[in-house]
Fold this protein.
Amino acid sequence: MSVVGPALRAEWRRVVSTRLWWALLIPVVALAVLVNLFGSLLGEGLGDAGDLPVLPASIAFTLTLTAVFAAVYGTVAAAGEFRHRTVTTAYLTAGGRGRVLVGKLVAGGCVGVLYAVVAVTTGVVAGVLGQGAGRVPGTGALVGVAVVGVAVAALWGVLGAAVGVLLANQVGALVVLLVYLQVGELVLAAVMNNSGSAALARLTPYLPGNAGDVAIYDFPARALAGPDLADQVVEQLAGVTAPPPWWGALSVLAGWAALAAVLAWTVADRRDVT
Amino acid sequence: MDDGSGRITVHDLTKQFGSVSAVAGLDLTVEPGGVTGFLGPNGSGKTTTLRMILGLVTPTSGEARINGMRYAELDAPGRVVGAVLEAQGFHPARSGRAHLRVAAAALGVPDRRVDEVLGLVGLADPAGRAVGGWSLGMKQRLALATALLGDPRVLVLDEPANGLDPEGIAWLREFLRGFARQGRTVLVSSHLLAEVEQGVDHLVVIDAGRCVYQGRLERLRGTGQARVLVRCPDPLRLAQALAAAGVVEIDTLHDGRLGVAGVDAARVGDVALAAGVAVHGLVEERVDLEQMFLQLVSEGRR
């Protein structure tokens, strides 16, 4: 703690002295309310909703949508140091570039945790209100999806911060991140799934965006479809072939985050700050 | 080992940006207890040199040391060296105080230090407002306040007078002199000699990434060679006569006058009279530091 403690304290002050963290929280809350309100209404309309744990599924859908905001926060905040040329002061005062990077990664992760916790909390409230009866079906799956969702958001916050430090260009890094997540990975996964090569198709759940989705959908899929059909449900929801269990998928995403952090460190350590 | 001297030493420092050589085998020493001016035209490698001293730019070869250590090896670099750099920015939405509180946390200095340095640079009043609306001069003061947070032994400033009004420049000059009088080190860069002339004890002049002068300011004044400027209808004959009399440092100026170095006006007049050459005007050139500076710089280019 003594080595990075001051860097973390400084990073905390950086986070709370600008509006970005709560500006991005607004769409997270809006999505959580909308998805779970309509999700639960849809469940009611299906008639047998009383037996089906719809809420874990709609919470899971919410978390796959809101994870990107953690990544966006990490990227914008980290690359912002370069855009506003505050990185010079950050490096000079921290006594080492590694401490600044660690501060950024931890901040991204913490903001990710915050977003996921808020998304789950407001989502559950909205879902319960939408169902009217105040029943919370599938409590076990709900806790599972919440914990995994928080972990996924934290990892995306770390990954986003690493991408921001790596590319050091705020607009560029944000465009790369969003284009990859919203378009790039969908196209890539579709090509891999339809390539005719089973080996290639089986790699689709190991792409970072898919890995996060697979981890999040694991619990609700098993609650909804039972252990035998769960994998097929996850395949449909995440658009992948042969998904690993949630812990496997989470490890894959953690691996991507670690890789991005190592790349960011390698580049940032050598970069001339002019 | 950190020798705590406050001395900056640069040895054979070189930085290549692609095919461009920004700094080329630079040697210099900055001693504590005085203000050292770091002078050179724009693009001469001053900023790159300062950033290499501060560990922000990695040298292609050679090294820069503070207290006998490379910047990255210093135990608490932020408390040894304070820096005001040109491209140092501030998040426009963050207040001056918030900016300093971030730096104070990173440096591990208590928060009351923030108000101390704000008072020191005269920013106590606007400190709560977002920096986005501040003038360039205020931002320069905030950068100085940031540099002073860790109570450093060494101050490095890159063109700190930019954006300051004359009053601010005078204040900064006095401040830096007082800082140096405490036995600390000040290295301040400028592309204008007039800006540092009054406030510095030592001078380092660089051009095209090389050191062209290093020493006390007075010594530079002393080396200045005065010339006699002669207006004459037949400069060629006068030049020949002067050469015959052993005066060889003769230039032809743009306006047709002769610039004669190493002699006084009386001697030139005597030689002209003896040779029967008419002289229409004789002026003794004043030794101007600015001219010395330009001369040094143009010699470096040759």
Remarks:
- Chain A touches chain B through 27 residues (CB under 8 Å).
- Residues 5-270 of chain A form one domain.
